[in-house]
Design brief:
The chain is an alpha/beta fold. It has eight helices and seven strands. Strands 3-2-1-4-5-7-6 form a seven-stranded mixed β-sheet, sandwiched between helices. Helix 1 (17-39) crosses helix 4 (93-106) and helix 2 crosses helix 3 (72-81). The chain is globular. 41% of the residues are buried. Methyltransferase required for the conversion of demethylmenaquinol (DMKH2) to menaquinol (MKH2).
């Protein structure tokens, strides 16, 4: 099945979404962390912590961090959960290069490793990971069904997939405030960094097209996950999805 968000791309180009997203993140990588903190008003760290708290009751010795970007989620997971190993994957080499340096600076190289992998076609064996996590990356998938099926495949039986996504609040006034912020304030700030402007025009478009709430839960169910639930944060600006194998 094709989902609307899969056709939302950063550039007006005939290239596949995967190639466009890779190009975009390679370009924004040097300023990504700084601008992300500004645009999220620093709340993104709280969102990540809440999501990782879910994993405490599940086995998490070996964690797969999907669409790791600059490695923030993997670094925080290591700090909070103390796993034996975290394998962080992404299609953007530029973003991971920033992550590698951050991991080295913290002395986490013995736990966190980076691999250039497309989550729709991973090279890992079946039943490899205890848990899979992703922060704000599912919107960028070129094929959500194929990617979710791959995540299920590489998870061990009883494993859990926890991901966070930016979502649209359902009720006013937060719904109206969110619309104003994403459509006006986000492009204004990103315009200060000329290379990032296109990326942050893509942001509100991808949020608006993303399957949310019950629709996302049904997609997870269709792709084989069970015991699926969600938790909304900050009045619906962000949602945590939890699904088990």
């Amino acid at each position: 099945m094709n989902y609307k968000v899969e056709s939302v791309t950063p550039y007006d180009s005939d290239k596949p979404k995967k190639e466009q997203v890779t190009q975009m993140f390679d370009l924004v990588a040097p300023n990504y962390d700084k601008l992300n903190r500004i645009l999220s008003l620093g709340i993104d760290d709280y969102w990540r912590r809440e999501a990782l708290g879910v994993l405490k009751k599940y086995p998490h010795s070996h964690i797969l961090d999907i669409a790791t970007g600059t490695g923030d989620f993997a670094i925080l997971a290591n700090k909070i959960l103390k796993p034996e190993k975290i394998t962080a994957v992404d299609i953007s080499v530029g973003m991971m290069a920033v992550g590698v340096e951050k991991v080295k600076a913290k002395g986490y190289e013995n736990v966190i490793s980076f691999e250039n992998q497309d989550c729709a076609e991973m090279t890992f064996s079946d039943n490899t990971f205890d848990a899979a996590i992703a922060a704000f990356g599912v919107r960028n998938f070129e094929d959500i069904d194929k990617s979710f099926s791959e995540v299920l495949r590489v998870l061990k039986p009883g494993g859990v997939f926890v991901f966070i996504e930016l979502t649209t609040p359902e009720k006013s006034p937060m719904k109206d405030l969110h619309k104003f912020y994403t459509n006006n304030v986000v492009p204004l700030f990103s315009g200060l960094f000329t290379t990032e402007q296109k990326a942050y025009e893509y942001l509100p478009a991808s949020i608006g097209a993303f399957p949310q709430g019950r629709n996302m839960m049904l997609i997870l169910k269709k792709n084989g996950f069970t015991n699926i639930r969600l938790r909304r944060l900050t009045l619906g600006i962000t949602t945590i999805y939890i699904a088990e194998k």
